[in-house]
Specification:
20 strands; alpha/beta; FAD/NAD(P)-binding domain; binds flavin-adenine dinucleotide; 3 domains; Polyamine Oxidase, Chain A, domain 2; 7-stranded mixed beta sheet; about 500 residues; 5-stranded parallel beta sheet; protoporphyrinogen ix oxidase, domain 3; about 35% helix
């Protein structure tokens, strides 16, 4: 049965939608209010399902969220999150809830080396994959010979098979004549921030995907989008209003303690406060290690589907938030080549473009004259065992080397935040351990960036997983509808 719904609002579509609403009106419990759970809710609610979403914390957004910082009196993100032009499902989610205007697309990327020289990367009017060729050829941090070798390797990467094995990318790079300097100055710069892993710990599959989707397939693929507002606002009022309009019941501070399974079917959940909730269907959109703790041990042990998840490994991200008494960075961001952190974000500039520093949240922190800058250090294992003061010292020292204005500026406030389990690692062969959304428990779906999405751990991956879980529920009821959005064309 093929039904077309939710696309352009034709009268047939509207009628079918109402018929479906009447037929279904079925309750779906979603556990977890991160992007995966939220995306599933936005997909199912307009299609006639009654959604109850249970979130352990008092805020939505999961790992992509903000909190009120006592010292700066500001809503700050646990870490700057960026999207890219190639994240088509995340863009769809933003449009659905009406927050796409909160993102500032960066038409150019600024790469800086320790000697403070900057190369600007912007797309020329040439078709992909040549749109970045002119910028790349002008890049100051690679020699002409290195650029030729990298171009050749990129050409080979485009043609590399993706079936079967997912060999270590480091081996592939070595086989294709990429020197440690080329890895450090080109491949690593891109991969560490995109995959939150070092090139020696990732497989060919996701490394290839990053370069293809972001740089080679479409001129807009590489466009980084930076939220102009804190994540708490990006996933704030508009999202809540959308959920309310679609009668999605949100229960915050409601942590699930047990998922009840009887005779290989999901029957309900028990919350930590002892409430029992039942429904015909459930999407568990919690981190993978949490999911195993919620399920009955015998269910987990009976299915390799669940036990496989234990093989997934985590990688940490540290963000260092710095408030200076005057501007130290004139650019909107910097991609650091050969540095401790990979990105420096000019949060004041981003928030000014949303009008936040004029009487908004930023002003309370003196942002009018000062500047709020955030440094993101991905795959931050180098900081293990170091105290916050030492991390701050190293990062500030680097900033003062890179930005002369920071040498005389006063640092008013600094906050170091480390997320130890920021993302799963895209280790070689990682997809073996990532489950599809339809679990062996027929009426239980799983979602989350760690499930099988064909994407690494990103907001795009999380949204995809939510859409795929919703799609699986529709399919079980005989409605074949593709919810995943096409790639950029
Ligand atoms: C520091 C950092 C930086 C990042 N930077 C980027 C970036 O720049 N770009 C990008 O695309 N991605 C980035 N990511 C990755 C991105 O945040 C995640 O991929 C995405 O948010 C995952 O969403 P999710 O819904 O799968 O999981 P989560 O966000 O982890 O959501 C799971 C939710 O389940 C809830 N929960 C857990 N247990 C229970 C329970 N028992 N009962 C009820 N609720 C429960 C949690 O509270 C949480 O809200 C970053 C992540 C981190 C940590």
């Amino acid at each position: 049965m093929a039904v077309r719904l939710g696309g352009t609002a034709g009268s047939v579509g509207v009628v079918v939608k109402h018929v479906r609403s009447l037929l279904l009106a079925e309750r779906v419990l979603i556990i977890g209010g991160g992007l995966a759970g939220l995306a599933a809710a936005t997909a199912l609610a307009p299609r006639g399902f009654r959604i109850t979403l249970l979130e352990a914390r008092n805020r939505l957004g999961g790992r992509a969220s903000s909190f009120q910082d006592a010292a700066s009196q500001q809503l700050i993100d646990n870490c700057q999150h960026v999207s890219m032009g190639c994240c088509t499902n995340l863009a769809h989610f933003f449009r659905t809830i009406g927050v796409d205007g909160f993102l500032a697309a960066q038409p150019a990327l600024y790469f800086m080396t320790p000697d403070r020289r900057v190369s600007r990367f912007a797309a020329a009017d040439w078709p992909a994959p040549m749109h970045l060729a002119a910028s790349f050829m002008r890049a100051h941090f690679l020699s002409p010979w290195e650029k030729l070798r990298i171009c050749w390797a990129l050409w080979r990467l485009r043609r590399a098979g993706t079936q079967g094995d997912d060999p270590p990318f480091a081996d592939w790079l070595a086989r294709h004549g990429q020197s440690p300097r080329m890895v450090a100055r080109f491949w690593g710069v891109v991969l560490v921030s995109a995959l939150n892993e070092t090139p020696d710990r990732v497989g060919l599959r996701y490394a290839r995907k990053v370069f293809l989707d972001a740089f080679l397939r479409h001129p807009r693929g590489f466009e980084v989008e930076i939220p102009k507002v804190p994540l708490g606002q990006l996933y704030g009022q508009e999202l809540h209003q959308w959920l309310e309009r679609h009668q999605v019941e949100i229960r915050r501070q409601t942590a699930v303690k047990h998922i009840r399974i009887e005779k290989e079917r999901f029957v309900g959940v028990e919350t930590r406060s002892g409430d029992q909730l039942e429904s015909g269907c459930c999407i568990a959109a919690v981190p993978h290690d949490r999911l195993l703790g919620l399920l009955p041990a015998e269910t987990v042990e009976r299915h390799a589907y669940f036990t496989n998840v234990r093989h997934l490994e985590h990688s940490p991200i540290t963000s260092v938030h710095l408030w200076w008494d005057r501007p130290v960075l004139r650019l909107p961001h910097v991609v650091v080549v050969d540095g401790i952190g990979q990105w420096i974000f000019n949060r004041t500039m981003a928030e000014q473009s949303a009008g936040l520093t004029k009487g908004g949240a930023g002003e309370t922190n003196g942002a009018e004259s000062g500047q709020y800058v955030q440094v993101v250090v991905s795959a931050a294992r180098q900081f293990r065992g170091l105290g916050q003061a030492e991390i701050e010292r190293r990062v500030v020292e680097e900033l003062r080397r890179l930005m002369p204005a920071a040498r005389t500026a006063q640092l008013r406030n600094c906050r170091v935040i480390t997320e130890n389990a920021a993302t799963f690692s895209a280790l070689p062969g990682v997809d073996r351990w990532r489950p599809v959304q339809l679990s062996p428990i027929e009426n239980l779906m799983v979602a989350g960036d760690w499930t099988a999405t064909d994407w690494p751990a990103t907001m795009e991956g999380a949204v995809r997983s939510g859409y795929l879980a919703a799609q699986a529920i529709l399919a079980l009821r005989g409605f074949r509808e593709r919810l995943i959005r096409p790639d950029l064309v």
